[in-house]
Amino acid sequence: MLTDNQKEALEFQRHISVTANAGAGKTFVLVRRFVDILMKTDTHVNELVAITFTEKAASELRKKIADYIEERIYSNPGSGELIKLERIRDQLISSNIGTIHSFCAQILREYPIEAGVDAAFTVLEGVDQQIAEQDSVHETFEAILNDATEIKRAEELRYLVRTLGRYTVERYLSIFLAKRELVERFLQDGACLDERIEEEKIIQRWDEILISAILERLTDSLFRSSLERVIQTASGKTSNEVKDIYSSWATNLKPDETIRIYAQMANLIFTQKDIPRKEFLGSSTANPQIENDLAVIVECQKNISKPIKSFETDKVLKGNKILLQSLRVLLDVFRVAISRYDGKKQEYAYLDFEDILIKAKILLCKDEVRDAIAKKFKFIMVDEFQDTNRLQYEILQTLVSNYQSGNLFIVGDPKQSIYGFRDAEVEIFESAKEEILTKANGKGVILAESYRLLPNLIDFVNRLFSKIIVPKGSRYEVRYDELVQGRQSAGEGTVELMMVPVDDNAHNGEFTESGNDASNFVQDECRLVGERIIELTRDGFVIYPKKDENPRPIEFKDIAILLRKRTHLATLEKVLTEYRIPFVLTGGMGFYQTQEVLDFLNYFKFLLNPKDDISLVGILRSNFFSISDAELFGVSFTDGESFWDEMIIYSHDKNISANFKRAVKILTKHLGLVNRINIPLLVDEILSSTGWRGTTAGLSFGEQNAANIKKFLRIARDFTARGYTTLYDFVRRLSVLMENEEREGQAPLEITGNCVQVLTIHSAKGLEFPIVFIPFIHQKFRYDNPPIFDSDLGIAFKIRDEANLDEEIVPSILHTFKERSKQKTEAEEKRIFYVACTRARDALFLSCQLSLDAFQSTYLKWLTDALEIEPKTLGDKKIVFPAATLRALERTKETSKIKRISHQLTINVRFWDRIRMSNLPLPAKSTAVVHPNKILISSLAGNSRGEYFSSTQIKTYLECPRKYYLKYVLGVPDINSVPDEFDESEDSDDILKGDVEGKITHAVLEKIHNLSTSEEDIRRSIILRAKENWLLMPADLNRICEVITKNIISFINTPFGIEIFSAQESKNEYSIDAIYHDDYLVGIIDRLYRDAEGNWNIVDYKTDKINFDQIKEKAEMYKPQLLFYAFLVNILYQQSMVKVSLVFLKLPAHPYHFEFSIQDFDNLRMTLTDSITRIKSGDYHDDINACSNCSYHKQNECLAVN
Asked: Residue 832: helix, strand or coil by DSSP?
């Protein structure tokens, strides 16, 4: 049954704003309103727009709407209603549900000429955008400094470089580009940095704002009364002098005089570090009231001491003037960089997300376009409106003609606006609510009822956040709307504060600093969290599930640990693992900073530059090879130009391990492959050759590692699919992402097991959990570093005067920027803390380290101040607070109403106890049966899409599914010996096995495109490739050169050789892939050439040592592989017949030819479909007929067991 407020929110005759508390069911209201509009009006689905914050949220909203429609269809409605519901269900696929960017992109594509864009534009985002921006800045620098016509601009830029440094200037310009819409607002007519406004007027305004900010602090009534009491009770030797000055400090003084007199007093009252002086206070601080007063005046002094000092010095140093001059030069260069950046995008028909919004706004200013769109979209609904920025709001205003037409519905919770880093402006919500009420005669609705939290949690949240989320005249603060208890449950709810005391005695004074905290105290806090989780599960802590509210004991899967930062994630993981607590990392946890991505980056860097010793040592010590430090130490004594050279020499020592020889062999092979196969295939080859999957499968985070590598492969495929082909570009891309992109989440795991979830607070938004742990609530906040942006004031940063480059100047206005930025950060941190606390349904556990540092601006400080708790006086106990009024929803079958009840908040307090912890029984280890030296095969069905399959993979699966599982699923390497020397007689057919002759032969043939290549060119190329293959000793060079030269020259001079090398169009070492249903088929064709009839033909080279009588037999062995390649050509070039020629280079005059037809392709298609389906279903049975020649079958036993 709907509440009265929910019913009001469902009205659709006018504009409505809905403020929805955490757990109020706003998504349900949005879904219901969407369907009601379609059911009760003649509106078509595509005339209704629903805008969400992310694509994921849009997908979830669409699903919830579909589920709600199905639910109503199955509730046996009348025939008329059923017809409508079924029609809506069928139309839902065409619904306009998405992000503001996808909506604006749709508009631009509909009106490309009017918008001045390419209708087929591509969105430039992420690292591609960052690289384009950085390149634009670099190129702008070079262009200005090297252009003889840019003398004035070049000199101004050189001045900036001298005073700020080139790195800083480029960094600032890159930031300006990333925030260009805001920067361009600053430059608009009459805006704060409009170039037509005289410098003196801007500086005067800055001075006035700074003085106003200082005076606001000095005239605050609480500060004044606290200062007066402190001065009157002070008894130190300077106290009388302060009293005399204070007596002249009237409230009606001029601003400058007010500040000057206070500065005189402050010099006598405070030290340089803003600590009250003993010679002023005397012995007057024993009074608790005076202690509180001192805290008030110290806080104020810390906020204004630097602004006051800089305000005085700025009159001499002219810091604000130098800042403005420097800023105007930067903005001038910024315009040039913007022009260059726009040119790059235009060349490739790119638009970034900012472009999409800006161009959509400009497009909507055209009356005919706006009217057409307004007519097309009758209803606009916006979810999570608190995360909207000004530009997005202006677009929405235009769509409804500034509330004079259309129908706008916005819903959100200002208290949950936590995306400032994405330029969300919480004040926009309040502006929109006000305009809906005043301009549009609309309605504002508050959904106060929370159906998530139990009473004790609601009481805790209300008491805490009603004290700290208070407008207080700051534009960044919001109003706190108290939660109303809407959940009907017998549970009361638990709130617990867990503390680790931080003092020298507790840990014998032994600790090392790590960030803001001592590292061993961090570990203690993580242990405290782990201890509590074990106790809760062991003791059967009761929760009340959402489905039926019937109590049951908790399981690990009911628990979530929410982190504000990733700083101590590694320690937390280690402790949870140590305590045998199963857990999974979920979203927002630094994918590009994971070890597996770093290992691949090192691998690629080595392949691009074998002299990169650091990258090489990194991969040798990684899970790719696990080379011991002792062997690496031994290599270092070898004499070589690089570590790789030393490894080659060292590898010929007879006493080295087989694992070391294997590493040299694999790396040598990959150096030969690096420019010959695409990046996804290279990644897959590295995984297969090194056995990475098998090595990591049994590790604690093996499942997460494997999922991350699958994601890494997808990223590599996307990169290749977008037309990028070089490994160098991919490495550059990864390096930028690793440095700048910390918010990219690790690959999500399907959470089906009984495990604790660990995630960031931002990732948890929109979710709920029975039990929530929020650790590290004592951590300090991160404040913005220069350049600091302020939507009213512009941009500010530290500067240097050219006359004294060694000394930084802090412009006085920068203090105002910092203070306003600090207010904004702390206001958002309050909301982040609110989001974290309101994720819990049944129990909330907060943990911290109790130290003096914790009593600055932290979650802990806010909590203890708001609830008037003195933690250092507490032990393990329960705090019972005086009863307070709690509003609760009372329901009957027909009605619902809000009643007021009396409630006593209780908070459990728990301190870290090392002795108790040492006696804690840990969960039992697994009792699963273990097969020594065996790998257990489990049937893991999956429905993943976009997988790559090669002919070798399919061939392996057809030989033995179990072998496929070992080789390609787990990545267990083949158990093969490592050749130390070149042997002319060895079989070097398979390039991916890295055998010497085949590798060099293929590499040389790849470079021969026509008949103009001389024998000397071939010989020189062979020697070059041979030297690249570090496994060859000098004695082998002449021998291998003669063998390969003979084979290649003989082949080129045959009639068939002349035919293929005379072709007008050909491709060597052609990496080919084709879409096959939901997946891809891939292969590498040695030579693909077009004949005189225009048909594409395949040539495949083999270096097997065979005689004439064996040609047909060998060719038939390779036929399945060649049919696979022909099938790829059939798909890509739509050829019904494909000719494939097999050339055995030992017998070059006798090529063997196949012609594959449609019937062959149809038969292969059936085999492929069946094999891929079985692979995805987890069918990995063994085939005993293949065991005799299998490298995984040793001593009459398979390496794997079922």
From this structure: helix
